[in-house]
Design goal:
Largest sheet: 2 strands, antiparallel
Strand order of the largest sheet: 1-2
Oligomer: single chain
Radius of gyration: 19 Å
Order of helices and strands: EEHEEHHHHHH
Structural class: mainly alpha
Shape: elongated
Helix content: 55-70%
Length: 180
Amino acid sequence: METTKPNSTPFPNVPPMIESDDREYLDSGVPSTVAIAGHPLHPLSIIFPIAFLAAALGSDFGYWLTRDFFWARASFWLIGLGLVTGVIASAIGMSDFLQIERVRKRAAGWTHLILNVSILVFTALNFIIRWGNAESRILPWGLILSLIVGTLTSLTGWFGAELSYRHKIGVVGAGSKRYP
């Protein structure tokens, strides 16, 4: 479903989740503040915490179904790796948040930030409660925390995509960091 205006770039015919400004969608975009050769690092860095934390949720379910200690140990390590890589990804994202005014002017930017901080807090809590006895803490609290993190990860991914694709933030372009 695309709509086009004469002599313009096609744009989605899907209503925005929070807000929309066609001027932002139609301009060239704002490049990321943390990039190598113009390639933004935030989209690259988020794949690791997402993968680790999604796998931790899966291994928690594996433990719930089998009660095999392998799954408890796997969850502990996956949560730890998700936390470390999440802190790295959040530092890169925070650079864009602080240096690009267009991000701070959008509710999607604030929602993305708040959800990601929540994910890090819940992940740290999940890691701490498992420290020293990974197996006994999975049910019920570890699994519940992993479910919360999985849900929040899905939501924040939506808002991150809103920032990139609808508001053209963190893309190759010569747009204004303030306004299109």
